[in-house]
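User: Let's play a game. I give you a shape written as tokens, and you guess the letters that built it. Ready? Here's round one.
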């Protein structure tokens, strides 16, 4: 069964980017200790969903090759954006509840990864469509920035289904929506 997942890293105080929208605070930890888990996660993803700011960040970060060539990519935007070769990239606007069935179909039995940002993930959660949050909490405090999940109301309860403590001090937790 297809799951809709928000796989994300945040600071201890709940921010996914710093005041300037940067990720230097996250990149200082490197990728090595997280790589195996990330690759296993990505192998189960059929659709990647992101907002326009995340799309532009990915383009800047990987200018020579699209970062998710094996997945169908949905970019939520109300403005025109450049198209990049090397991926199945679909642009859409509208209510995530109306788009979600299209994501499920495109995922073809695999999972849907809400890459970001937090506002997109919050829309999916507010619509009751988020099945799991895979959160890596990094041992750093930012004080301000882009919130992890800026919901419009209190969420339902999530059950913790697993945790991993990494050598860097980061803690990975999987939260499943209680239904």
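Assistant: Ready! My guess for every position:
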């Amino acid at each position: 069964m297809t799951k809709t997942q928000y796989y994300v890293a945040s600071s201890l105080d709940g921010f996914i980017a710093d005041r300037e929208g940067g990720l230097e605070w996250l990149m200082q930890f490197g990728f090595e200790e997280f790589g195996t888990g990330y690759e296993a996660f990505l192998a189960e993803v059929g659709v990647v969903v992101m907002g326009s700011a995340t799309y532009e960040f990915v383009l800047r970060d990987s200018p020579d090759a699209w970062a998710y060539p094996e997945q169908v990519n949905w970019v939520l935007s109300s403005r025109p954006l450049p198209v990049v070769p090397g991926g199945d990239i679909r642009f859409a606007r509208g209510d995530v509840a109306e788009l979600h069935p299209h994501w499920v179909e495109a995922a073809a039995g695999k999972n849907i990864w809400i890459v970001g940002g937090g506002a997109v993930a919050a829309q999916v959660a507010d619509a009751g469509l988020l099945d799991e949050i895979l959160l890596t909490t990094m041992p750093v405090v930012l004080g301000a920035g882009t919130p992890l999940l800026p919901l419009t109301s209190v969420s339902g309860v999530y059950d913790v289904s697993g945790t991993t403590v990494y050598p860097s001090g980061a803690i990975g937790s999987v939260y499943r929506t209680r239904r």
